[in-house]
Amino acid sequence: MEQIVCRCGCGQMTNAFDARGRARTFGNQAHVARYAKQCHEKQVREATTKRCPHCKTRKQVNRFLIDGTGKPYGNCKACRKAIYGSENYRAKVRIRTRRYISKNRERINETARFRTAEVRALARTSHERYIIFKARTWRSKDRESDLTPEYLIELYSKQQGLCFYSNRPMLIPKAGGFRNHRWDEIKDWMTLDRLDPHKGYRQGNVVWCTHSSNLAKGYRSFHEFLEDVTLIANTLQQRADRLADFIGSNT
Asked: Are 171 and 178 in contact (CB under 8 A)?
């Protein structure tokens, strides 16, 4: 009869099938209990300890930094102190910092300009303050973008605070982002949309619109969106007329 090694780790050989022909993985019930105890001890050990990837030793969870979900991550505190506190590491950080500054000098200067009192003085309303606050985010999505706080505020004033597509009033997004609020709260939040998604965030290619309109437009250009909306409106109007006729014929 075919023989297999017992799964509990004892090293003993046992029959692969029992008298009824069913597959077996343990020698007897004692081996099953031993394996269950081993699994329980492993779960407890993994829940209360963690292996440091730097020193290769398993330590208590309180020896590590804890993330937002309550789980330990990275190297232990002792290894982090030894690594990040060394002069060699500090020298590498200084070299990387100089390289980053030399490569991104224009971007750093532009970011600093957003924080000056001259730019902040442009904001007369809460909407304009939000525009200046988020202008750096939109610039970071497209490094070749020529959007400025002055242009975005002027564009908002031309639209009179109304959505470009639906002509509905736009609201300032609240803290927490779109995922932490209900749909009826975020549908009228103001967003920046590209008329032609292939041209990027450029002056003359962006408009202010509500979040619901931005989602409805998707990755389509303005003319493609106009064709689809016109077709949908005509189709719904035809169906509404037929529905009225149908309801009227049965009353």
From this structure: no
8: number of Cβ within 10 Å: 21
Q: Are 75 and 53 contacting, i.e. CB atoms less than 8 angstroms apart?
A: yes
Asked if residue 233 belongs to a domain, the reply is: no
Query: Measured between alpha carbons, how far is 3 from 82 in angstroms, rounded to an integer?
Result: 52
Q: Which two tokens stand for residue 149?
A: 């706080």
The residues facing 190 across adjacent strands are 210
CA distance 135 to 151: 10
Domain count, the chain: 3
Q: Which domain holds residue 18?
A: 1-51
pLDDT score recorded for residue 158: 93
CA distance 203 to 222: 15
Bridge partners (DSSP) of residue 3 are 15
Does some domain include residue 99? yes
Instruction: Give CA–CA dist 90/79, Å, rounded.
Output: 15
Provide the whole-model pTM.
0.51
Conformational region of residue 56, where left means phi above 0, alpha means psi within -120 to 50, and beta covers everything else: left
Same domain, 91 and 31: no
Bigger pLDDT: 249 or 213? 213
Report the alpha-carbon distance of residue 218 to residue 197 in Å, rounded. Answer: 9
DSSP H helices in the chain: 29-48, 77-84, 87-103, 105-114, 117-120, 126-141, 149-158, 183-186, 211-217, 222-249
Distance separating alpha carbons of residues 12 and 32, to the nearest angstrom: 13
Same domain? 153 vs 196? yes
Residue 108 lies in a domain: no
Q: What is the DSSP letter of 162?
A: B
197-212 residue pLDDT tens: 888 888 899 999 999 9
Residue 249 inside a domain? The answer is no
